[in-house]
Automatic annotation (TrEMBL):
Name the UniProt record assigns to this protein: PhoX family phosphatase
A Pfam family matched in the record: PhoX
Amino acid sequence: MNDRDTSHLSWDEWDELQRPAPENIDFDRVVDEALTRRGFLSGVVAFGSGAAVMGTGLLSGSSAQAQATSRFGFTPIPIATDSTIHVPDGYTWYPVAKWGEPLFSDAEPLDQATGVSVASADRVFGENTDGMEAFVVDGRQVIAVNHEYVNPGINLPHQDGEVINADDVLTLQNMQGVTVMEVAEGDNGWGIVVDSDLNRRITQNTPMAITGPAAGHPLLQTAADPAGTTVLGTMNNCGAGKTPWGTYLTCEENFNGYFGSTDADFAAPDGYARYGIGAESRYNYEKFDARFDTSANPNEPHRFGYIVEIDPADPSSTPIKHTALGRFKHENAAAVLAPDGRVVVYMGDDERGEFMYKYVSNGVYTPGGPTSELLDDGQLYAAKFNTDATGEWVALTPESTGMEAAEIAIFTRMAASAVGATTMDRPEWVAVNPVAVEGYCALTNNSRRGPDFANAGGDPAVAVPNSPNPRDANRYGQIVRWWPADDDHAATTFTWDLYVMAGNPTVHDDLNKGSANVNAGNLFNSPDGMMFDSTGLLWIQTDGDDSNEEGFAGMGNNQMLAGDPVTGQIERFLTGPNGSEVTGLTWSADKRTMFVGIQHPDAPFPDGEGLLARSSIVAVKRDDNQPVG
Ligand code: FEO
Ligand code: CA
Ligand code: CA
């Protein structure tokens, strides 16, 4: 491994290294007595009107009681620490698509010694699968799936992960972005339909349009695009979403790590620091591709950090970056219709101490009606949580922020700070329950919340009892949920509680033991991916510490669990291979197959000893072929 090779680090770990930021903050320390009075230590995490919605399973903390009323159709499984996937008895899994697998028959097969060639990198299934959604196009099943980042140590095995020329950069750029692929179930199970006319790779070099309030703004103009309305590519595509009109939403997260300066004297423009854009990129792109050299193209980073809409039914369509949805480290996009037909999109900004957002369209969606303005003309809000279990969505307007509309769209983090939004423990996926008017957000962890650290955004990130972020040095994470006023996702007020506070009751006897619906049988940390199935069960995927030691003892590898929103019961359904994050979930049209993403596994997953590790989508089915969601 060369000095610059940080491919053994996840993006989150790498980003943390860019942000040491220790700084004493003057604040009133949280006292355990207050938490005890509030009921946290007795495991009650619901309060206010939200508690009325919760069943007695969570409040009583009785796993046995919850078991008796389980809605789960599976027998929970134990943790695992090995290099494969485990699912419950009566279920089977197998790979459907692996990094390097051809989407087109002209792609060269993956070579164990050299990886994927530069000529084929955008003709194969990309690296590090993440958020995905399934669509039906003319009766054919299509999966759109993100490729979040690359692992040069695996992708450039002949160079020990070192990026040494422009071809290396192009190879890596083409392994990221999005795959749109037709899949079909044959005698040997699900697989890619090679050469389908719906197959498409979208990479860091695919032309796309910029729309919304920031389109054409001087901060988005470059020498290659003086109009500021077209950009090449999307990157660090993390979570995803689906619009009511059947398009795919892909979310640009840690884009900052791709930009660097070849000029040591380059002075970073305003806005770089808050978005973590530093002097050196992670993979040397700036040395071989001037677009990523901030000293040559200082506005290029302003053109990333958005949500991109892709039409999976039209491979010739131009993807659209919608600036009205804000610029930050977008995790995913949970779109839902308000009762009056307005489109609501909930979003998280995955950085410690950043915010939760939602967008509400001005126009309404009608099936078959026009949709082109719905993600460009609307109002962006940031979430403010009160300690009395109420909250509000604060509109980010020129009046409330002192910023122009275009500036709000480009420097959304600053706009949310200006209105005093609540700093959060790294908002990851948002999920909206299809059978109840409620939303959930995974707050994955925040190792630097607390008195000794400033958050990345520059706002005090302090633990406050009865806030959605109640712990200092939050190593386990929690899931907050909210109920919009009047059962209307467009409403500007809500009530909230914590659905679960992850922890380890076998090790801790304080807040770190977690809430009452955490027990020795379902231990996990760092909830991240979340999707509801059609029956209203919440599927929770983790991206955390898989050491299985000390405070993480009994948690094993990263995993996927199912949660009952009503009883609070949470049970383990799937365990991932060593080193991996379980992320991305969707279903076949008949719900008889669950597609699950495995990101950055260690070798030998999935092909065996001595072979390259390959991030994969796997199918999970019941042996009796009954629905799995
Ligand atoms: Fe790409 Fe925040 O996970
Ligand atoms: Ca994630
Ligand atoms: Ca994560």
